[in-house]
Amino acid sequence: MYLSRGLSDYIEQWGSYSAYVRFNHGLHISENGRLLLELLRELRSQLPNVKLHFLSYSIGCLITRSMMFQAKESSEGSLKGLGKIVNIASPDMGSYLEKLGFWVGFLMEKTPITA
Known about the structure:
Layout: H1 7-13, H2 29-46, E1 52-57, H3 59-73, E2 82-88, H4 96-110
Parallel strand pairs: 1-2
């Protein structure tokens, strides 16, 4: 029986390989971005002639963007050998649950009687 790995199967047919990177939910996005940048630099030192592409989903998009910002701000400058970046469902404007929590907290502050 053949078990499909989804997108990875198609990527390998094109002569490329995929790597899945997870992040620590307990860390701030900027800290995860810094760790991703360290991982990317280590990978670049091991595979200097390989072009790296990113496919990020949800909060991973914010982490990827943080990684790019930190690379730009560092003394090393931009990331060489970085290919295309695709972001899917990036929460650029924040999540609805977070916005709801903000407004509930704001209204609770303005209410003279709170629970």
